[in-house]
């Protein structure tokens, strides 16, 4: 497939980039700073563009079989980075006639599928700390759902730097019971699996160990 990746210099994005290239996909990585991308592959094209500029990124999503965003924010202050970047990507895709979009979100902001301790004790505490990034992710998901494109949302819990095992649990439109963490490498693996599954279109998929 011809895939464009945003957030390719981040923790999950780097794994996604490498796994997609290794799988034989034709990959375009749209980055702000190419110097942060220490990876080379015959199937990889690196372009420099501002994701917030829909007109600038439109040529790089045109003709793509899929566009994937692994953009995230580590800032606990009020932020709209995921909402704004996703809206820009979707605007560019709509203008270019591209259809397939996958994005990384988070399962922490939701409680469907959680056990009682997680739902009533753990999540309220986490909300006090992570309210701002989780609120941004929630708004981002609303933008994705309203886009009219062929979208899939991937919702992991806490991310780790563990290896890619290909062994994890998933749940559709609800959280994985007992979800605590998953490696960034396995999130990348899940993104590529769901990309290949037409049944994932229009679904939010939680993934966890």
UniProtKB/TrEMBL annotation:
Residues in NAD(P)-binding domain copies = 7-198
> Which GO terms of the molecular function aspect are on file?
biliverdin reductase [NAD(P)H] activity; riboflavin reductase (NADPH) activity
- State the source organism's domain of life: Bacteria
InterPro entries (alphabetical): NAD(P)-bd_dom, NAD(P)-bd_dom_sf, Polyketide_Oxido-like
> Matching Pfam families, A to Z?
NAD_binding_10
Entry-linked PANTHER family: FLAVIN REDUCTASE (NADPH)
What name appears for this protein in its UniProt entry?
A: Putative NADH-flavin reductase
Question: What species is given as this protein's source?
Answer: Saccharopolyspora shandongensis
């Amino acid at each position: 497939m011809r895939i464009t990746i945003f957030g390719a210099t981040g923790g999950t994005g780097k794994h996604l980039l490498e796994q997609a290239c290794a799988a034989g996909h034709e990959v375009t990585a749209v980055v702000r700073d190419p110097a942060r991308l220490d990876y080379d592959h015959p199937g990889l094209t690196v372009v420099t563009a501002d994701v917030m500029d829909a007109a600038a990124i439109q040529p790089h999503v045109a003709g793509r079989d899929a566009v994937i965003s692994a953009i995230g924010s580590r800032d606990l202050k009020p932020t709209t980075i995921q909402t704004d970047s996703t809206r820009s990507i979707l605007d560019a895709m709509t203008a270019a006639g591209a259809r397939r979009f996958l994005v990384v979100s988070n399962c922490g902001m939701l409680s469907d599928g959680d056990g009682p301790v997680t739902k009533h004790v753990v999540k309220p505490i986490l909300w006090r700390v992570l309210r701002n990034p989780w609120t941004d992710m929630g708004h981002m998901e609303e933008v994705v759902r309203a886009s009219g494109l062929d979208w899939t949302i991937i919702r992991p819990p806490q991310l780790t730097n563990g290896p890619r095992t290909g062994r994890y649990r998933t749940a559709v439109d609800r959280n994985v019971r007992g979800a605590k963490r998953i490696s960034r490498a396995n999130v990348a693996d899940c993104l590529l699996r769901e990309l290949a599954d037409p049944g994932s279109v229009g679904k939010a998929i939680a993934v966890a160990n």
